[in-house]
Design a protein that fits this description.
Aspartate Aminotransferase, domain 2; binds pyridoxal-5'-phosphate; seven-stranded mixed beta sheet; four-stranded antiparallel beta sheet; 14 helices; Aspartate Aminotransferase, domain 1; alpha/beta
Length: 397
């Protein structure tokens, strides 16, 4: 017996694999620093927890409409209007089990077998797998440090073929923290309009943004872009609600309707209590967010400053999300304690053993010269981990 070709074609999540290994070491009593963290190290704010308890007491424990509670969809429409200048009706919104599920739904709704989907690299490792699951063909566009890990309009145009169906855009980006400026997005937008392709715009990190960077939803730039964009967002990161599993998408009506139909036959509605609490979440959270962003900003600066003082290492300053890409290509071809290092994966293994630091090797993101370090962990852990990583780097020969 073998699994289907579709299932066999899907890779294990490398980030989860590293976390699992680090967790195993921790369970054995080894004090590993988990730089792989993909979620804020903050509890969900109390007012959201109180709303969930209220939901339980009120008996909000039954099926809801498959695409989401009307009140939640309304709150999402209000959010998209206020924060992003986007006008959607509730029928254009589908609430799902996290933004990841919304992205899956979006891919299933627009990709046919053999369709090409452009994915700027470095990319979040789930995108290629979602495209493959939908029968599509990922087409990678390498975006280097020279342009802040961002895709240029010329690169996008060069990647577009008659088979191109969509572009997956992620700003602010996981893993690079890159944020497209409004002007850059407008230029990409022109190429997208010309080619008549779809955009799946993953805006899950929109509120985790630092310095002078601003977030703009590509769908807000023109009517044509609005008509070809599926905007994806969720509550996981901005409200520290990763475990609650609430994400959503906003799309042209026909696409939203198709997705609602699919979801009604697959997962049905997202958890009713989490939906109920999400209505409250969207009505507040500014103080929480200010604290989250302020804390992350301090850690971000500290981490980048430290890395850029280490031998064989460097890092650009990310403008969003909570990850730093550490360029370690200068250690390739060298060795640590006699162990040859020829890839980011090799070096990540060395760091787990010798620096007790779990980092994610860039191969997972189509970025072979890098390690991804999350700063969604305490400053004490960051400091301890970076101290140890620096010691390893000093012994590289
Ligand atoms: N999109 C990106 C870029 C992410 O990094 C993540 C989570 O790590 C998600 C989407 C998924 O978020 P959710 O927890 O809402 O499924």
């Amino acid at each position: 017996m073998s699994v289907s070709k579709r299932a066999a074609g899907i890779a294990e999540s490398l980030t989860l694999a590293i976390t699992a290994k680090a967790n195993k070491m921790k369970a054995e009593g080894i004090p590993v620093v988990g730089f792989g963290a993909g979620e804020p190290d903050f509890n969900t704010p109390d007012y959201i927890i109180a709303a969930a308890k209220e939901g339980l007491d009120k008996g909000i424990t039954k099926y809801t409409a498959s695409g989401g509670m009307p009140k939640l969809k309304e709150a999402i429409c209000n959010k998209l209007k206020a924060d992003n200048g986007l006008m959607y009706s509730p029928a254009q919104i589908v609430v799902s089990n996290g933004a990841k599920h919304s992205l899956h739904n979006a891919c299933q709704a627009i990709i046919d077998d053999g369709d090409e989907v452009i994915i700027p690299a470095p990319y979040w490792l789930t995108y290629p797998e979602l495209v493959l699951l939908a029968g599509g063909v990922p087409v990678y566009v390498g975006c280097g440090e020279n342009n802040g890990f961002k895709m240029t309009p010329a690169q996008l145009k060069a990647a577009i073929t008659p088979k191109t169906k969509a572009l997956i855009l992620n700003s602010p980006s996981n893993p690079t923290g890159a944020v497209y400026t409004p002007a850059e997005l407008a230029e990409l937008g022109k190429a997208i309009e010309e080619a008549g392709i779809w955009v799946i715009s993953d805006e899950i990190y929109e509120k985790l943004i630092y310095g002078g960077a601003t977030h703009v939803s590509i769908a807000s730039l023109s009517q044509k872009l609005y008509e070809r964009t599926i905007t994806v967002n969720g509550l996981s990161k901005s409200y520290s609600m990763t475990g609650w599993r609430i994400g959503y998408l906003a799309a042209p009506l026909a696409v939203a309707k198709a997705i609602d139909n699919m979801q009604s036959h697959t997962t049905s509605n997202a958890n009713s209590i989490a939906q109920y609490a999400s209505i409250a979440a969207l009505s507040g959270g500014k103080d929480f967010l200010d604290k989250l962003v302020g804390t992350f900003d301090g850690r971000r600066k500290y981490m980048v400053g430290r890395i850029n003082k280490m031998p064989f290492a460097s890092a650009l300053t990310p403008e969003g999300a909570f990850y730093v890409m550490m360029n370690v290509s200068k250690v390739f071809g060298k060795s640590y304690n006699g162990k040859a290092i020829n890839s980011a994966q090799d070096f990540a293994e060395v760091l787990l053993e010798a620096a007790l630091s779990a980092v994610v090797p860039g191969e997972a993101f189509g970025a072979n010269d890098y390690l991804r370090l999350s700063y969604a962990i305490s400053i004490e852990d960051i400091t301890r981990g970076l101290d140890a990583i620096e010691e390893v780097l000093k012994k590289i020969k």
